[in-house]
């Protein structure tokens, strides 16, 4: 008997099952019904409905729960936060630490234009740099910084889309919120450099 229901995984006999195996089939079917009812019963109890609280992840791992039950680690660095029990182990249920923020113009001057937004735990940034003349190997810094909640956890590099392929360079986003453009060649000319960037919110 291999057939099971799609939601609770309850087993049931099929037309191809032999009569001689009926006792085993009914026993297996009764076992899956009992497991499903037990899980429902456990979720209906205070112990099965409330989060399992632990100060560290190791302490949480020492405890078991009902499938789907939540846990919470209160004070363990990057391990702090909500967890879900899958029947055999706890899995981190990552949460959004920053509120959503509508698209906002951060800078629009000195040849720079930068807009950002925060949506469902991710930061989205668009940046455009327009400049003129041959600046060779040099850097330009955006006159402004990203707000703390939109800053990346480490320095990130993004290759831009350029109107002129001779203007090779890279946008650098720093954990301080500063954005710079580093020109990587002596043949820089007047150009528009554009990039769309994304990273998890802090």
Write a structural description.
This protein has 202 residues and is an alpha+beta fold. The chain has three helices and 15 strands. The chain has helices spanning 22-43, 46-49, 57-61, and strands spanning 3-4, 11-12, 52-54, 70-73, 81-85, 90-92, 101-109, 112-119, 122-131, 139-145, 156-158, 161-162, 169-173, 178-183, 191-200. The strands form four sheets. A five-stranded antiparallel sheet has the order 7-8-9-15-12, with no helix packed on it. The mean pLDDT is 82.
What fraction of residues sit in β-strands? 35-45%
Strand order of the largest sheet: 7-8-9-15-12
Distance between the termini: 50 Å
The biggest beta sheet is recorded as: 5 strands, antiparallel
Order of helices and strands: EEHHEHEEEEEEEEEEEE
Query: Whole-number average pLDDT?
Result: 82
Low-pLDDT ranges: none
Computed over alpha carbons, the radius of gyration is: 28 Å
Tally of individual helices:
3
Helix share bin: 10-25%
Label the overall shape: elongated
Number of strands: 15
Structural class: alpha+beta
Task: Produce the secondary structure layout.
Layout: E1 3-4, E2 11-12, H1 22-43, H2 46-49, E3 52-54, H3 57-61, E4 70-73, E5 81-85, E6 90-92, E7 101-109, E8 112-119, E9 122-131, E10 139-145, E11 156-158, E12 161-162, E13 169-173, E14 178-183, E15 191-200
Parallel strand pairs: 3-4
Antiparallel strand pairs: 1-2, 4-5, 5-6, 7-8, 8-9, 9-15, 10-14, 11-13, 12-15, 13-14
């Amino acid at each position: 008997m291999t057939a099971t229901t799609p939601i609770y995984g309850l087993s049931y006999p099929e037309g191809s099952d032999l009569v001689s195996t009926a006792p085993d089939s009914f026993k297996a079917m009764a076992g899956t019904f009992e497991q499903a009812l037990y899980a429902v019963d456990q979720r209906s109890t205070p112990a099965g409905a409330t989060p399992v609280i632990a100060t560290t992840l190791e302490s949480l791992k020492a405890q078991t729960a009902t499938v789907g039950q939540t846990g919470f680690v209160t004070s363990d660095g990057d391990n702090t936060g909500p967890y879900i029990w899958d029947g055999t182990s706890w899995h981190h249920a990552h949460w959004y630490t920053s509120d959503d923020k509508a698209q906002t113009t951060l800078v629009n001057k000195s040849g720079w234009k930068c807009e950002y937004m925060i949506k469902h735990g991710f930061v989205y940034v668009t940046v455009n740099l327009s400049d003129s003349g041959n600046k060779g190997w040099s850097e330009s810094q955006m006159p402004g910084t990203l707000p703390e909640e939109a800053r990346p956890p480490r320095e990130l590099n993004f290759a831009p889309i350029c109107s002129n392929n001779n203007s090779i360079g890279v946008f650098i986003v720093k954990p301080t919120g500063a954005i710079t453009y580093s020109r990587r060649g002596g043949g820089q000319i007047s150009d528009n450099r554009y990039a769309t960037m994304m990273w998890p919110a802090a």
